[in-house]
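Backbone-to-sequence.
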């Protein structure tokens, strides 16, 4: 029996003639069962299943939250659909890290309004990071009154209860918490992939980089107990998962605030011991907290993938300081050197922001210098986005768009050239790939992911999905390879 089957039994066992239990997660099991009756009745009235469309707009943390939300939707009786047009319920799990994420939500809400006019029983639900901003809630209350339910990042475990409240009310329900120290486990999860899964090891962030809204919308750092994490991974492995990604805004500070403190490296050592688990990834590392112990554990591990995402954000010391990153360019470069010396086959990727207040073209040259020296395998480059409430938003010297563009384009070219050079180095090598999915363009090919996070396409059958195979990387096409399986 799988994880969801175990939970389903606990839901079935709830007695709806009694008041809801006070304790979590039993309380949510009760509301799931209650929602089931409502959904079933509606479905009988319509003579068809009810469809739900759950859309995730954010990072891996949000994607994991969406799997939990979809898990509840399935348990209450919805059939999941990709299409908003066919849906009886649409759920957007939003991001707010850059303003364009917010604009996209408003754009899509306009479209949902037109769908709701045709289909008045359509339920529209918004949750996630963007909903933690008071100004957003105000705007939705004012201009998007057709939204049925809004909740935030701290109370997603209450989704079943909120669904019940929504069914019983006509007005918009808004439930946003400013903080929580509650971590509710043991709720249903609808995983997107059978063979790999993300796992939250911590929530929130204490770093307060001056451009970043995350600490305001995700709250203070809270680590999960190691034994809960290990238990969750063991159960995933029993369910057929071979690769896991440990998730946190800053995994390198994992465990510091637990009653019995433990380091991230020590957690990794325990995860490594789980039999049947083949690959371990993690996201995201803050350079200031990356320990020698972690480098050692990675070096000695057979399971931790040869990939480290190490956001640098900028190369100029002045800008790094204004960003409150708490390292200098030299410190970052010597950390990278240390990592590469210990683990020569590691792929390093990064995030970079261009256009932070006060950044000049010579500052961007410093960033370009870092890219050249580190030789990133990939870098995500972002144009600075002003987030209300962050210290950077009120800094003087916001950079004019043309200056940002010029620096950005120049940086992007170096990033792409470097990544291409790095990829070319592996052409002709044989490497292990996890077979992930059928190639979108050519269904005779499968797509596999290498330990270093690069993709390779090769002829194979769909039955290979979830298996590890050795692949010869015959041709490098810049950012991916084509190849063939070797025995
Ligand atoms: N503007 C642009 N990019 C940002 N990021 C975070 N906040 C902002 C912002 N205000 C980027 C950082 C981070 C990634 C997830 O998003 O590079 O590492
Ligand atoms: Fe993820 Fe941050 Fe976006 Fe939230 S705001 S979805 S934590 S990137």
């Amino acid at each position: 029996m799988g994880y969801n089957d175990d939970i389903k039994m606990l839901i079935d066992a709830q007695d709806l003639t009694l008041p809801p239990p006070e304790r979590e997660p039993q309380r949510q099991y009760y509301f799931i069962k209650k929602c089931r009756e409502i959904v079933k009745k509606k479905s009988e009235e319509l003579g068809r299943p009810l469809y739900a469309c759950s859309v995730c707009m954010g990072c891996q943390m949000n994607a994991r939250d969406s799997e939990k939300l979809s898990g509840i939707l399935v348990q209450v009786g919805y059939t999941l659909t990709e299409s908003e047009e066919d849906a009886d319920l649409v759920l957007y799990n939003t991001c707010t890290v850059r303003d364009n994420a917010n604009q996209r939500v408003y754009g899509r809400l306009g479209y949902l309004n037109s769908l709701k006019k045709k289909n008045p029983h359509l339920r529209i639900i918004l949750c996630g990071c963007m909903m933690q901003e008071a100004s957003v809630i105000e705007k939705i209350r004012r201009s998007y009154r057709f939204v049925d339910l809004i909740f935030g990042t701290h109370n997603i475990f209450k989704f079943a209860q909120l669904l019940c409240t929504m069914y019983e009310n006509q007005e918009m329900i808004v439930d946003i918490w400013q903080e929580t120290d509650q971590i509710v486990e043991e709720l249903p999860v609808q995983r997107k992939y059978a063979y790999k899964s993300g796992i939250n090891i911590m929530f929130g962030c204490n770093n307060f980089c001056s451009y970043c809204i995350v600490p305001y919308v995700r709250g203070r750092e809270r680590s999960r107990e190691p034994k809960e994490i290990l238990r969750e991974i063991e159960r995933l492995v029993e369910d057929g998962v071979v690769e896991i990604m440990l998730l946190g805004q800053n995994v390198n500070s994992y465990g510091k605030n637990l009653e019995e403190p433990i380091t991230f490296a020590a957690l990794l050592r325990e995860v490594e011991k789980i039999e049947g688990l083949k690959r371990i990834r993690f996201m995201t590392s803050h350079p200031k907290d990356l320990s020698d112990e972690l480098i050692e554990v990675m070096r000695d591990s057979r399971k931790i993938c040869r990939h480290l995402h190490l956001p640098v954000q900028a190369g100029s010391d002045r800008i790094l300081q204004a960003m409150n990153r708490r390292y200098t360019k030299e410190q970052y470069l010597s950390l990278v050197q240390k990592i590469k010396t210990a683990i020569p086959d590691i792929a390093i990727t990064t995030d970079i922001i261009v256009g932070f207040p006060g950044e000049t073209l010579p500052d961007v040259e410093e960033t370009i210098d870092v890219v050249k020296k580190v030789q990133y395998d990939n870098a995500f480059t972002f144009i600075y986005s002003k987030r209300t409430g962050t210290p950077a938003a009120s800094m003087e010297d916001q950079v004019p768009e043309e200056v940002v563009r010029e620096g950005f384009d120049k940086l992007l070219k170096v990033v792409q050239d470097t990544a291409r050079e790095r990829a070319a180095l592996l052409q002709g090598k044989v490497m292990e790939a996890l077979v992930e999915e059928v190639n979108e363009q050519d269904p005779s090919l499968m797509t596999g992911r290498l330990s270093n996070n690069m993709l390779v396409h090769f002829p194979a059958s769909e039955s290979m999905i979830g298996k590890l195979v050795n692949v010869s990387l015959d041709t490098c096409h810049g950012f991916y390879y084509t190849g063939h399986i070797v025995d």
